Amino acid sequence: MASSRLRRSSPLLVAASFLVAFAAVSSAGKVAVYWGQGSGDGTLAETCASGLYDFVNIAFVSAFGNGQPPVLNLGGHCDPGAGTCAVYSDDIKSCQASGVKVLISLGGATATYSLTSADEAQGLADYLWDNFLGGTSPSRPLGDAVLDGVDFDIEQGGADHYDDLARAISSRCGGACLLTAAPQCPFPDESLAAALGTGLFDHVWVQFYNNPLAQCQYAPGDASSLENAWAQWTTGVPSPGTKVFLGLPAAESAANGGYIDADTLKSQVLPAVQGAANYGGIMLWDRARDAASGYGSSVRGNV
């Protein structure tokens, strides 16, 4: 029988408990990645089996709105029109079985899309529900796998009605789908400010790259602009439950500026951003560059 006398914790046990707690906090960040536009992506199943990512954004539904039907474009991976993208249904299920969330991403930088009315936003929400989420449709491009949510990577076409789209998706899903967004680092983002203002987004992975003139991304040897922009984003998102991620290029060739070498990221930048209460982790563009560079595997333990 155990003694009823209170025992004092030994200094070694206290120190060990502290280290365990510190490790849990310091590794609390997660990693998101975009998949679908690079020839070096590998399969979805391989991407998730790497153990590097918590979220995979399938990129992109690159055309929608202004009267045009939504179009899925996965580069050279498959042909949605011929039905060959349905092969990824099993991969998606494999990812989800391993704990990785898989989302369909809207937009991109080199695409044609816009929303001209609230009705058009509702129509796109219905399409996404029926073709990628919990609804039913004979034309589901990725087969019968049910994705975990929708990512807004809106980089052109103005800001109109993306707030309507967020509300419509959330309503269609009954609040059960993840909503994420990838705004540019200038705050507020001109395309997504109204959508983010709905407070419906779970994760926001801000693109701290491709904005060399905006003074919001890392410059060689100078993280001050990034840190100032990070402070704006982490204090400016309207919902306290929204996690903010540091969006990064996974290789210097992946973006027009903003690349941070792995050593600098681990020693200088991550310690500066992880103190935010709503810090979520990092986002990488994209899987093909990350697979080639090994960037994600180098920094994962520090995220």
Automatic annotation (TrEMBL):
Signal peptide: 1-28
Keywords, in A-Z order: Carbohydrate metabolism, Chitin degradation, Disulfide bond, Glycosidase, Hydrolase, Polysaccharide degradation, Signal
Gene Ontology biological process: chitin catabolic process; polysaccharide catabolic process
Residue stretches spanning the membrane: none
Residue ranges constituting the GH18 domain according to the UniProt record: 29-303
GO molecular-function terms, A-Z: endochitinase activity
Catalytic activity: Random endo-hydrolysis of N-acetyl-beta-D-glucosaminide (1->4)-beta-linkages in chitin and chitodextrins
Top-level taxon in the UniProt lineage: Eukaryota
Enzyme Commission number(s) of this protein: 3.2.1.14
GO cellular component: extracellular region
Family stated for the protein in its record: Belongs to the glycosyl hydrolase 18 family.
Protein name from the UniProt record: chitinase
PROSITE patterns in alphabetical order: GH18_1 (PS01095), GH18_2 (PS51910)
Alphabetical list of InterPro entries matching this protein: Cts1-like (IPR045321), GH (IPR017853), Glyco_hydro18_cat (IPR001223), Glyco_hydro_18_chit_AS (IPR001579), Glycosyl_Hydrlase18_Chitinase (IPR050542)
Gene3D superfamilies named among the record's database cross-references: Glycosidases
